[in-house]
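Input.
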Amino acid sequence: MRVVRSRVMGYCNGVSQVIRFAQDVIDRARVEGKKAYSIGWFIHNPSVVNHFISQGMEHIDTPEGHEPGIALIRAHGIADDLREWFIQAGFTLIDGTCGTVAHSQSIIRSVSEDEHVLIIGLHNHSEVKALSRVRSVSGRFVPVQIVQSVDEVNLLDVPSQGTIVTVVQTTFEHELFHQILERLNHAFPDRIVQANILCPSTKRRHDSLLSMIDEVEAVLVVGGKMSANTRALAELVESRKVPVWHIEEASQIPIDIFQYQSVGITAGTSTPEEDIRTVMDTLHKGAGDGTESQILQ
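Output.
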């Protein structure tokens, strides 16, 4: 078996940052004799999250019913009113919001009242929730609408005049994003202003994966099942009619993978290097002698 490793894998900058902050929260809570919390899953990878749970970090969604302590804001960010609630309840917050997400929030915060904000993203994704409850500089919540498919563009209820500011979920599937943007420009000519872009790290992963697909017979995508950017990688492979499996760990490698002579490996932005290596080692052992690895250049 020939195992081809995608050139772009490993943590993105936002994930690396929030993992460092997670350890800071644990350490500070111990020193101050307080409880350590994460507001929701700070990243969507179970092996990483469970590591911090084992050190005493508790995941909570609201401050209600919890003793005040040191709380980490997840990489996807949180809504402004939820942040205010935690502060009023006496929690100390460590802000792990990814810089690209924080930039998107600042864009929404600064729109004028005659501009309309449209979020392109998954309705229930943590980042989209954080972008949906942003206060303007005057203190009001900025009204937004969310669209996650091309068909939903036809369901939008926007005024007949005025600029429409689009803010995309940074980990959204890039081909679908451009399809939605094309439909928006057709439906609302000369009114669409694209205010941000997809996360550059996510785009580099997609580009690297696309260049690998033609080199292999099947693909394993490694990462959390809750991770939108990891699911998008699997969906991208599916769209090219190549067999693909989305797994979280080596124990989930399907036996069917060993029927292929060449297998590609890619991973989401929150997948640790050790998980990737374990998957590759398991493939080598399962395939026996003659297995070789290659990093796609």
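The two ends are 19 Å apart (CA to CA).
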